[in-house]
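User: Can you help me understand a structure? I only have the sequence.
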Amino acid sequence: MSLIIKEVSKKKELRKFIHFPASIHKNHSSWVPPIYMDEWSLFNPKKNKAYLYSDVIILLAYKKEKIVGRIMGLINHKYNEIHNEKHGRFAFMDCINDQEVANALISFVEGWAKEKGMLKLIGPLAFSDKDPQGFLIDGYQHMAILDTACNHPYMNDLIINEGFEKKVDLNDYLLKIDGKVPGMYQAIYKRLMKNSNYKIIEFKKKKELKPYILPVLELMNNTYERIYGYVPLTKEEMKELARRYIPILDPDFLKVVSLDGKVVSFVIAIPDPAKGLKKAKGYLFPFGIFHIFRAIKKSKRLVLLLGAVEKEERDKGIDALMAFKIYESAIRRGMTCMESHLILETNTKMNAEIIRASGESIKRFRIYQKNL
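Assistant: Let's start by predicting it. Here is the structure, written out as C-alpha cells:
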C-alpha cells in the first residue's frame, strides 16, 4: 500500500493537521482536545514569535488518500545557541499503530534535521516547555490536563523501534486536599510572617492581575533559564502568553510574594477545565466558552501551572508561603485535590517536596533522543 509524506503548505492542509488527533483519539476517554483557536495561533508564523528563531516543517502521512499520521520537525536556534547544541526536535507526532507510518514520518524529519547540520533529534518537544512535551508512558487511565500530551501506549513502542532512547522523564503528581493545610507549611508560614519582610499579594478580581503579569513572566525568564526545554520569552511572547491565559485564570489561585516592592516569587494554578474542553470539543464559539467556564466553576480539582522563586531567595521557605496560601484558597473553594503539572525528574528538590506533602505520582512522560 503506497504511503505518501506531504509537507503542509496550505491552510486547508494545516486544518487537517490540527484536527487529525481527534480521529485517533475518538474513543480515548483520557484525551482532551486542545483549544483550536490557540492551535491556529501556535502554527501561524505571523502570530507565534518563536518562528523568528526557529526552522519548522509540518508533515502529514497519507495512505490511499487517507491521513494516517502527522509530525512537526523543528530547530530552535535560540535554544541551541544558548546551550551550545545542534539538536533538532520532533513534536505533535500522532499516527495509527503502524511502524511503516511512524518510520516514514520520523525518517523525514531526521533527514531534514541532518541537512540543516543537526547532530541529534529530541522529542516530543516543540518550541518550548510550555507546549505539550514527551510521550505519556505511565498513567494512561488519568484524564489529560491543559497543555500536556495524551497518546496511546503504542506511540512509545513505535518511537523506540526507530532507535530512540530516553532523554529525560517528567512526573505529574496528585495531592489530596483534606480540609487542612499540611503541617509542614503551617510552621514555616508562621515563622516567616513573624520574622521576615516578605509580603504576600493576593487577588480578588482579574483586573488586579494586570500590573503583575509582566513582572511575574520576567521572574520566570530569570529563574527558568536552566530548565530543560525552556526558551527565554521576549516581551511580545510574554504579552501573547498573558493573552492566552488571563481569560481562564482565577484570581483566587494566583499568589505573588514581594520583598521591598519587588516580585520575588509567584505561583499560578487554575481549576481544571478539562471536562469543559471535552464538552466544547476544543471550540470556544459559539457555546464552547460557556462549557469551559462552567467546568472551571464546578471543578474540585486544581491544576498547578507555573511557579518560581528568585534565585537569591531560595531555600528560605518562600515556597512554603505560596503553598500555604494556595492550600488555604483551595480549601475555602472546596477543592478536593491538586495536580502538580509536569516536573522534570532532575528537579530532585521539587519532586522530594511534593512527595513529602503526600503527593502521589500519577503520570509520567518521556522525552526521547537519537543521534543522527
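Now, to help you interpret it: Residues 309 and 318 are 7 Å apart (CA to CA). The chain has a mean pLDDT of 93. Let me know which part you'd like to focus on.
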